[in-house]
Amino acid sequence: MKTLSRRRFLRGTMKGAAIGVGLPFLDSMLNDSGKAFAATGQRIPVRFGTWIWGCGIIPELWVPKQTGYNYSMPEHLKPVEGYRNKLALLSGFDVKLDGVPNKPHVTGCFGLRTGIPIPDRQVRAPTFDVLIADAIADTRFRSVEVSTTGMQRSYSYRDAGSPNPSEVNPLALYHRLFGEGFQDPNKASFTPDPRYMAQQSVLSAVQEERKALMTKVGAADRQRLDEYFTSLRELEQKLALQLQPPAPVENFIMPTPPEATPVDAEMANVIENHKIMASLLARALQCNQTKVFNVLFSDTASNLRRPGVSSTHHTLTHEEPIDRELGYQREVAWFAEQSMFAWRDFLDALDSIPEGDGTLLDNCLVLAHSDCSLAHAHAVEGIPVMIAGNAGGRVKTGFHLAGNADPITRVGLSVQQAMGLNVETWGGLSMATNRTINQLLA
Amino acid sequence: MDPRKSRFGRLNFGRQDAQSTVGYLTRAGAIAVIVILNLAACSAEFGTSYKAGVSALDEPPPVGGPPLVRRLTESQYRATIADIFGADVPIVARFGRELRADNMIAIGTSKAGISPFSLEQYDNAAAGIVDFIFAPENRARFMVCEPVADSAFDAQCARTTIEHYGSKLFRRPLREEQIARYLEQARRSAELVADYYAGLGLALRGLLSAPEFLFRIEEVDKQNPDSLSALSKAERLSFFLTNSTPDDALLAAAESGALNTDEGLEQQVERLMSSSKFEQALRAFFADMLEFDLFEDLTKDAQLYPAFSPVVALDAQEQTLKTIVHHLVDQQGDYRDLFTLRETFLTRALGIVYQLPVPTRNGWEKTAFPEDSAYAGIQSHLSFLALHSHPGRSSPSLRGKAIREVFLCQEVPDPPANVVFNALVDTGGNTMPTARDRLHAHNSEPACAGCHKIMDPPGYALENYDGVGTWRDTENGAVIDASGNLDGRPFSSPIEFGDALRDHPETGKCVAERMYRFAVGRDIVWYEREYMDYLIEAFKAREYKVPSLMRDIAMSENFFTIDSDAVRFEGASL
Questions:
Q1: Does A268 touch chain B (CB under 8 A)?
Q2: Most Cβ neighbours (<10 Å): which of A63, A110, A160, B299?
Q3: Does B79 fall in a domain?
Q4: What are the pLDDT digits (tens) for A77-112?
Q5: Distance CA B18, CA A60 (A)
Q6: Which of B179, B93, B95, B183 has its CA nearest to residue B129?
Q7: Is residue B458 domain-shared with residue B365, that is, in the same domain?
Q8: Which residues 68-87 in chain A show a CB within 8 A of chain B?
Q9: Range of B210's domain?
């Protein structure tokens, strides 16, 4: 295959139908320094993802007392002790409000993800995962969103009018990723289905109306239509991929359909669903179904709960009295700690898949964060952030860095740069920054 | 004056109603400081025009708004496919959550984009629809012509098919270049897969994924830039009154120009409103207003509420919609009586939660809450009580906020972020058995008290219903006190609260305003205030009959008017 151009291949198999096919972005077109598989010489893709948990941390149990590489692991980070070398802990970075009202559990999250504080969900800029996907996605899915508490939402937005919804059901996720349209990368033979080519061509006819429509509507609606056409191009690209034999993948094991499980916000169910979905997602990353993902472990106003208890994680943050001996809310702390166990489960899923001379995790950059630090104060100062994986050698990990109240956009800027985006400054108002976190970039 | 006005007759109004409204609001003056009382505040400021409005029922000079691009909702998509192809055509897709803007999905449709996930799902749906109608056993039913041979490409027949379904899907005739484009793709596809029907099917699949189908792109009339084009009028009218695509008769009325005449419009409005599809529109409106989309996220603790199940959640929504349709359409009832109404429909699954016997074993039973029961009014339905509660308990704040926002169109601000919960840190050894006790802690914080004083009283009224809606006398052993005061009107029980909600001066105004926003898919612009007053007065004069309100909107000049100035004020809500 390597000696045959994709376009020639298509012409050869499609009865000579000469149609301009929008070919996907090639890795070689990116200015990256990724690693390659020893066996095939093929470049290992670098993936980007987010993992969010709601209602923050108990600062005294989560923020390490020391900075640098030799910090001692705080109580609530003990679950991820095993990943110490693959984790960078970032504390003390703030969302700067610039006078914008702090909408509890919303402003902090979107401030971090769009670089601009907002008093509602009306994002003023895309979330950074969308920017990164625009630059690197050449896979069947531009990005995959997953939520493990039954909440359909995600915190991935191209525009206020079109958030990317999450998959909430493990079986539905399985079917989307590995059902119709999935091609086993290690199948011996490959026969492209001419239907895909025909359909792709039909979509280009749909696309042709673009110009006529754009002149008919106002600026705001033009943006919405533009977004539609971006989605359409992605659908076309997906079809184009169906016409190429998939690149073989080492160690790929086709997942089996998961058993039906209860989908709700009960902690034990969430932990279980999260494990299943994390494992499906990891397999999908391994065989290049997507390069970008967003996991919503618990909503920012976390509805996690224990069976038979009338309060949720979020309501507890407001109502549970502070334990006089401990100095913090005991039940809230339980949820905060459980969230870190779940984070470990997620890292386990990525790290258990060997890839190249390391693991899948090594070739990912996963940014985990919450919406606030101290939930009952809805504090957007010191929002906890973790970066896991080395992005194929592009980021450094193993340390704790204190942000000293720097704008949290430094994190968003740095991860975009790590993912190869040519961006110098990012964020709005007093969060605009050009200060890369140099300790992070290799 | 527009001759259409004469249809309304000239109904006279006394001034007492308007005055009593103002009096009611003065008593509730404290609320106006924090809660944005959209209508009341404006009525007062527009004193002069308000007076003019009540003296006779004339539509004020039309203002209108900008032409919009509205995305089809899931229910509109399904209804449209059912109307064009048949109710048995399967639609297999997972539609994303609808976008809410200004508290309404209807307004969200004019802001929503289509994400890659959504388009993927539309494409899945399209594939299923095409597979069904092109299946050999179904072709006779759906094909409008027969090709000369299955294998050869019959351009004439393909063209006829594309024009036939294309114009239905796009709600307007296809332009020649559009036809040519899809025809060419049908031909190319048919060649690639060596099958006429498969090729044509792919072209149809393209039409089903096209922006001209998925979005309603409104156009201004070329001759009269102050009005929508006739086809866009048909579209607006049809989705408003049937929640579905314009049928052939309506499109024909638009194309012939009949829709631009008063008689033609009236004829179509009457026809649509008397069709069986009118109910779909009412259901769409109330499901939107009552925020039933939030049921998707609703979970209840199985140990605390064993009777609650996904079946109960679905039945609860259906119960309320059935009750509303029966009362408003079949009975031609007063909208406000929905808050005191005992007549309803139940299933056994619901009966268990209400703790009422339901003799009908399967399906729905038309019944009434017993006179001595504590249930009356849709605010006492599970669809309201369970939806606005936590997974493990009731919530006076969530319910009170919903009463204010859903039924009275009053906006409750977000809670302040930086609250110090001293009362929670030091409870002083006091136990807090009831929600009222617990919320008292909030009310001791000045930053919280303002809003909680507004939200909580309507919520306290409903505290006798637990987190799913089952009646209880006590919470944690303490007797629940459901008494309170709704903006100056005291109540001592949930039933009396229903009466107070029924009589609240904002109740009728709120639904009228909401219905208009539903109809046009945007918020009201400032200069439409007078028109809103007119609609509200007309609604009152027509004894709060919702179908009449919808007719008044559909026949008003403002409904179809395009105001280029309004574009500049877009988003400047009242």
A1: no
A2: A110
A3: yes
A4: 999 999 999 999 999 999 999 999 999 899 999 999
A5: 59
A6: B93
A7: yes
A8: none
A9: 69-216
